[in-house]
Structure to design on (200 residues):
């Protein structure tokens, strides 16, 4: 489904209708639609590796990992059909613990993420590290961890919510011999597994 050529700004409701009917994926930021570009082979391998490892390690717990087909809302609940405020994104991996809460009956917009992972691309890195991360940490009170993962080098930064609500870099990993640790979820993943078939 194509987008109306003359449309300049979209309400949240218009975005959700268009995005759900489209073959392409869009993120939404305060009325603007952001077309998601196709992913590289490296991006796809890293995302698949992460999903496999998280799925295996979360098995038997109350937590589960979902891929980029699940949207996350980072903003206020729309007050009416013309509301344009908020971020609706497609994280590469999102983890939810306990009962998922959704924006509406379509159950494709998550409200209570626990962990979000973005695999960085040259065209999106500034947005993922800047505006997107700011929206995530400002609006998603259930979020405890945010990871950014490079696809050009073995490089992962982990940000964690502190007891006082502030965010800090919890760890940085730059060697394939290291092991990613996420204490809040009891996750341990060797970087060699995350970057399997990319750098190893």
């Amino acid at each position: 489904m194509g987008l109306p050529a003359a449309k300049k700004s979209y309400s949240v409701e218009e975005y959700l209708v268009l995005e759900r009917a489209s073959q392409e994926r869009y993120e939404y930021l305060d009325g603007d639609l952001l077309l998601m570009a196709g992913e590289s082979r490296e991006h796809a391998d890293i995302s698949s590796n992460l999903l496999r490892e998280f799925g295996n390690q979360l098995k038997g717990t109350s937590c589960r990992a979902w891929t980029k087909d699940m949207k996350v809302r980072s903003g206020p609940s729309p007050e009416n059909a013309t509301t344009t405020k908020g971020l609706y994104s497609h994280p590469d991996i999102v983890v939810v613990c306990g009962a998922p809460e959704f924006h509406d009956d379509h159950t494709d917009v998550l409200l209570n993420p626990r962990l979000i992972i973005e695999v960085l691309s040259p065209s999106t890195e500034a947005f993922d590290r800047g505006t997107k991360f700011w929206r995530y940490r400002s609006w998603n009170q259930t979020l405890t961890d945010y990871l950014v993962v490079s696809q050009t080098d073995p490089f992962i930064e982990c940000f964690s919510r502190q007891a006082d609500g502030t965010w800090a870099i919890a760890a940085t990993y730059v060697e394939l011999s290291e092991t990613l640790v996420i204490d809040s979820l009891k996750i341990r993943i060797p970087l060699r597994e995350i970057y399997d078939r990319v750098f190893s």
In short: Helices lie at 12-21, 41-58, 125-129, 131-139, 191-194.
